[in-house]
Amino acid sequence: NLWIFGLLAFCTYMGISAAVCFADSIRARRKNIYPITLSWQGREQAAYGFYDTGNMLSDPVSGEPVSIAEPELLETILSAGLAALRPRYLSCRTVGNTECLMLAVTLEDLCIYTPKEAVRISRPVFALAFEPSALGKEYKVLLNSRLLH
């Protein structure tokens, strides 16, 4: 009887754990939060990115879509030397219509893992957000709305 009780307790625990993981993945998908990987010269950085339908920022030089990242996320990548990342300033307007300048860099690769596929973007442009309120606690990148079309 003790063996059956232990088996039932274990199965119940595993079932609840699986349900919580499943609920977390559904919640993340509904919120448009996806796992991502950033790459530069053999270095990779994993994080979560929020697919921001309101982010229409473009690089005025290349016309490429610009995503916004926390500087701490790119720390290991930026240690390779900032000059190689083609740094430049981008002018943008925030939600409150405040004009600001953001430092932007170009990486080698961005991979966004959606539930259906892994989307690879070569030479993605990232602007660095120095205001902590710009990003949420669950994600470190605001993905540009043009990246998943």
Descriptive notes:
It is elongated, with a radius of gyration of 19 Å. Strands 4-5-8-3-9-2-1-6-7 form a 9-stranded mixed β-sheet. A hairpin with a 4-residue loop joins strand 6 and strand 7 (118-122). The chain is of the alpha+beta class and 149 residues long. The termini are far apart. It has helices spanning 2-30, 75-78; strands at residues 33-40, 43-51, 66-69, 88-93, 99-106, 109-113, 118-122, 125-128, 141-143.
Please sum up the structure shown.
This protein is an alpha+beta fold and about 150 residues long. Helix content is about 20%, strand content about 35%.
Topology record:
Blueprint: H1 2-30, E1 33-40, E2 43-51, E3 66-69, H2 75-78, E4 88-93, E5 99-106, E6 109-113, E7 118-122, E8 125-128, E9 141-143
Parallel strand pairs: 2-9, 3-8
Antiparallel strand pairs: 1-2, 1-6, 3-9, 4-5, 5-8, 6-7
Number of helices: 2
Mean pLDDT: 84
What is the helix fraction of residues, given as a range?
Answer: 10-25%
Percentage of β-strand residues? 25-35%
Task: List its salient traits.
alpha+beta; 149 residues; single chain; 9-stranded mixed beta sheet
